[in-house]
Amino acid sequence: MIIVPERAIPDLLTRDASYRAVENVFAAMASGDAYNFPVIREAIGHEDALYGFKGGFDRVGGSLGLKAGGYWPHNLDKHGIINHQSTVFLFDPDTGMVRAMVGGNYSTALRTAAASSVSINHLARKDARVMGMVGAGHQASFQLRAALEQRSFEKVIGWNYHPEMLSNLEEVAAEAGLPVEAGDLDGLAEADVIITITSSFAPILLEHHVSPGTHIACMGTDTKGKQEASADLVASATLFTDEVAQSISIGECQHAIAAGLITEADISQIGAVINGSHPGRRSADDITLFDGTGVGLQDLAVSAALVDLAIEKGVAIEVDL
Ligand code: NAD
If pLDDT is split at 50, 70 and 90, which confidence band does 321 have? Predict the structure, then answer.
């Protein structure tokens, strides 16, 4: 079995490799070559932790396995480690033997950023110039850095519930030589692309905040009850997601579905756009919305790429099990 330790991963995994792994697996999901298993997520009644498994099988990529982990809210205060903790296990699809154990913390941020980037690349207008960010936490930095590579952006507009965190966005934008304008939500009407990445349980982004032609990537809502965009805004957009079953149950579309404003048939897999079986954006005035719920296959795809990279760079640890 190969072990790829968490500490080695930031030097191994590039945004480019993550993007390719995620784009390929989204395409495989839409063509029926890859599927996700039902998600398990449990409040374990210890340390207020949420623990669970996200797994799947990609017949084409040859990835079989799961990500185990979750959220321990007291980690940072008590132990000085991050609250999100996860590990990916890969198995040989021909034999069932365990193939690899790969740290999942850093790669989760990169694979999540890759998902919104794939959506921007395939759905945003080519002439998009203003990037809007709602959220400025840990994931937001990764999201913004990856998004800025997808179009020739000239400016970032940032809004966050905790304004003191906006400096996180300023640091990332500065790497690309771009300014961040901090304003109110109405200012987002100027944005051509908007990413939402918060832990909100109430709508933040409303219909009047968004102009025609905008692409929105809603990335924070990954649990029942969470919400970043109003149900009206969701219903007004052309809808895409990683996995429809998750979008309607734990993703941003859960609320518009519950309100009867949309049906499952209104939501398309982003993989269909990648494969060319869905045209994607139909006009320069379309509002497109990608509901990025986060699927296990993303973790497996990125981890499989990491195993190859770790072997190539000589940092893979091999153990007999
Ligand atoms: P974080 O704790 O570092 O940041 C949280 C963000 O949410 C901050 O911007 C904070 O200001 C904002 N926020 C907190 N309370 C809020 C409220 N009541 N209203 C509006 N905003 C509020 O967390 P993070 O690691 O950046 O994760 C952000 C979200 O992304 C979480 O909900 C997490 O579950 C989700 N996530 C999704 C995926 C996916 O694949 N879709 C992957 C990883 C994380």
Answer: confident
Q: Indicate whether residue 243 lines ligand 1 (CB < 6 A).
A: no
- Which residue is listed with tokens 């079995």? 1
pLDDT for the residue 183 = 83
Please report, to the nearest 10 degrees, the dihedral formed by the alpha carbons of residues 312, 316, 319, 321 taken in order: -90
Give residue 275 CA to ligand 1 midpoint distance, Å. 30
Burial (CB count within 10 angstroms: exposed 0-12, middle 13-18, buried 19+), residue 197 = buried
pLDDT of residue 301: 97
Per-residue pLDDT tens for 4-29? Answer: 999 999 999 999 999 999 999 999 99
CA separation for the pair 68, 88 (Å, rounded) = 6
226 tagged catalytic: no
What CA–CA distances, in Å, run from 13 to 114, 121, 174, 304? 12, 20, 22, 11
293 Cα nearest atom in ligand 1: 41
Q: Which of 67, 78, 126, 226 is catalytic?
A: 67
pTM (predicted TM-score): 0.96
Distances (CA, A) of 294 to 11, 108, 262, 288: 23, 9, 21, 18
Phi-psi region of 38 (alpha: psi -120 to 50; beta: other; left: phi over 0): beta
Q: What's the one-letter identity of residue 173? A: A
